[in-house]
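Box 4.2: Ligand-aware structure prediction
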Amino acid sequence: MELAGKRIVLGVTGGIAAYKAAELLRLLLKEGASVQVAMTEAATHFVTPVTFQALSGRPVFSDQWDSRVPNNMAHIDLSREADVLLVAPASADFLAKLAHGLADDLLSTLALARACPLLVAPAMNRQMWEHPATCRNIATLRGDGVDILGPGCGDQACGETGLGRMIEPEEILADMVAHFQPKRLAGKRVLLTAGPTFEAIDPVRGITNLSSGKMGYAIARAAREAGAQVTLVSGPVSLPCPQGVTRTAVTSALQMHAAVHHEVAASDVFIAVAAVADYRPAKPIGHKIKKGAQAAPPQIELLQNPDILAEVAALRDPPLCVGFAAESENLAEYAENKRRTKKIPLLVGNLIHDGFGGDDNTLILFDDEGQHPLPSAPKLELARQLVARIASLLEKRR
Ligand code: PMT
């Protein structure tokens, strides 16, 4: 119940994506939020208020003169107690109204009269989204501190393809949960490595491992949610970059090493989640090695890669360094050993069969105070717990 106790006003404006707002409402309620729906008159042409009323168990408002509000102050009362006003879908017309401070219906008046944060999930045709007027409005809204969720890219109801679709209800829910995370790392700069590295043998073959990047990307997202400015140096993975995170894509350990050193001086925290190849072929071949071209199978001479984490930890004024260790056995002994050898304050241990590839993991944190097990959970949940631990270590260092 990630939104337990949160009071949300869900504004629905006129657009075909309005039907998805019903699913969004269901998801918000399932996470424990209490939700008051307010619709524009146009929205009621796409979905009837009865749908939202039945799902939320509350009357739905669309008219600012609604006599069901005792003092006739619906435009103020509905958002007064709210923790957030979320408008999904937000049409181009509604965003224009918001940007100009217009208040000519209940929802736009609520938005102007609110004291709580405003999040909007735009939904419109791609040309409307790209129109200079919409671009100006979005820039104005961002400047006013409005959070813009999406839009997504893909097929549109009008038959066109491009940017402008409302992001999916599950994604909006994730953004809402992120919105309410404590801002423990506000003002901090976090640098991470994630994923595997790929060390070329020839143009199509190489040495790599099974890291999917999921653990590192979850931590990048959790750090961003906690208010940090996050730079993610990522080996080759097929994951989208978390919203608000700056990503530098690399392939080999040497590239990762260079990218980290480029960024590290400006970082308060360095988290090495990547499964970096310890060795690379000494002489990558420029052409594809042909089978049977030699009398014996080729011998590959290997060179040791630099230890990025150990080097960062040995800097004169290092950021708070956090390492990871994936082991197949003796986790506690090997992990603590790695922590001491690399001289880092916090090391996160996981078992290979838990850590690599899956959506869930089980972690043990090792620091000067001992061991702190984090039981099996989705990687994002563990990432948030790790971020909380890092924030408290930063606090102690001050
Ligand atoms: O990506 P996923 O599929 O979600 O999987 C996540 C994970 C299992 C890869 C991750 O949780 C993890 O455990 N990463 C560390 C893997 C490991 O065992 O690394 P290591 O023992 O080789 O290195 C120890 C630490 O030194 C790590 O923080 C590593 O990033 C760092 N290191 C290692 C070698 C090197 N040349 N440079 C480094 O910075």
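In the box above, the bound molecule is PMT. The two ends are 34 Å apart (CA to CA).
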